[in-house]
Structures are given as structure tokens and as C-alpha cells.
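User: Just a sanity check before I run the rest of the batch. Below are the C-alpha cells for the first item. I only need the designed sequence back.
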């Protein structure tokens, strides 16, 4: 914790600030809702459950990523982006991406034997390319995820340990209404 605090105070986050404060992130429209001012409770929630068979699961987890040199989360995020685009008509989606939080930012600290839950949650703005080609969509999502500086960990560093001006700027950014975590 002490090293992380020192890192936040001494780090050079200029390039990352440009990414986190991009103008396109400030122009996100809220997701459509059924009833403005309606109840937002668990009792009002609906669940949609879909199950894949063994063959479909194997294809999703191994064959598709191997064929397109991607990871499973790229495939799932491309599908999520496509589904939201079909629903909302918007070509971009702001999501909070949750990651393991054990990024290798300190060369002399080994977290491999550390017990505990580490998590980083950071906003990712995904853009749907103007194509119906699933492979192009997958490649676009993969590229966008690769552009995230330091796998997103410094967003939390800036948000919680950065100087007051940066913390306030991050608080003023539109919040994501969708969170994605692939375990």
C-alpha cells in the first residue's frame, strides 16, 4: 500500500491522463430505460439466462480465440458491444472493466504469494466499427483493449491516490452503466 501511494505521488501520468480524459468519453449518452423515475430494485429485475452446450462452450473458449489470436474476454466484449449497439443504436459503449489488479508495476515486489483480493475497475469506451463483419468487430475490440495504458490499473491510482484536481476530473466523467468481469 505504501509503494502504491508513493507511485501515485511520483508517477508521470501525462500520457494516461490524455487517454482517461478523452473528449469522446465526455459525450456518452445514458442507456435507455423503461420508466424514468421508476423503481430500481431487485424485485423489479428480470433475468435472462442462456446456456451453451459443451461443444459451443469449447468453441467459444478455445477455438475462436485460437483462430483469431485473441482472448476469450475479447470475444465476449465484441459480442456485448454488438448486442448493445443493436439495442441502443449507439456505436459506442462505456463499460467498467474489472481486472485482477495484480499488474506488474513494481519491479522488486512479488505478489504471487500474497493472499487477498485485488481488483482494478476502470472505464473503457468501446467503439463499434461501421461494419457487420464479426471478425472486424473482434479485431477492433482487441485493438481498443490493447490501447488501455497499463491494463487500466493507473485509473484507480489516479482516481483514489492522485492529486485533488485529477480526482475531481475523474469524478466528473460520465459513469459506466455496465460492468464486465470475466473470471
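Assistant: Here's the designed sequence for the first item:
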Amino acid at each position: 500500500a505504501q509503494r502504491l501511494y508513493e507511485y501515485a505521488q511520483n508517477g508521470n501520468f501525462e500520457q494516461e491522463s490524455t487517454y482517461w480524459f478523452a473528449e469522446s468519453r465526455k459525450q456518452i449518452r445514458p442507456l435507455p430505460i423503461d420508466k424514468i423515475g421508476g423503481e430500481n430494485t431487485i424485485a423489479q429485475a428480470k433475468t435472462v439466462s442462456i446456456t451453451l452446450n459443451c461443444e459451443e462452450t469449447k468453441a467459444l473458449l478455445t477455438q475462436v480465440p485460437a483462430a483469431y489470436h485473441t482472448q476469450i474476454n475479447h470475444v465476449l466484449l465484441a459480442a456485448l458491444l454488438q448486442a448493445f449497439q443493436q439495442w441502443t443504436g449507439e456505436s459506442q459503449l462505456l463499460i467498467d472493466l474489472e481486472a485482477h489488479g495484480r499488474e506488474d508495476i513494481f519491479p522488486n515486489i512479488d505478489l504471487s504469494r500474497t493472499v487477498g483480493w485485488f481488483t482494478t475497475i476502470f472505464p473503457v469506451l468501446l467503439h463499434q466499427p461501421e461494419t457487420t463483419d464479426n471478425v472486424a468487430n473482434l479485431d477492433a475490440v482487441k485493438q481498443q483493449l490493447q490501447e488501455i495504458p497499463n491494463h487500466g490499473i493507473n485509473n484507480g491510482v489516479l482516481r483514489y491516490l492522485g492529486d485533488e484536481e485529477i480526482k475531481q476530473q475523474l469524478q466528473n466523467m460520465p459513469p459506466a452503466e455496465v460492468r464486465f468481469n470475466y473470471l
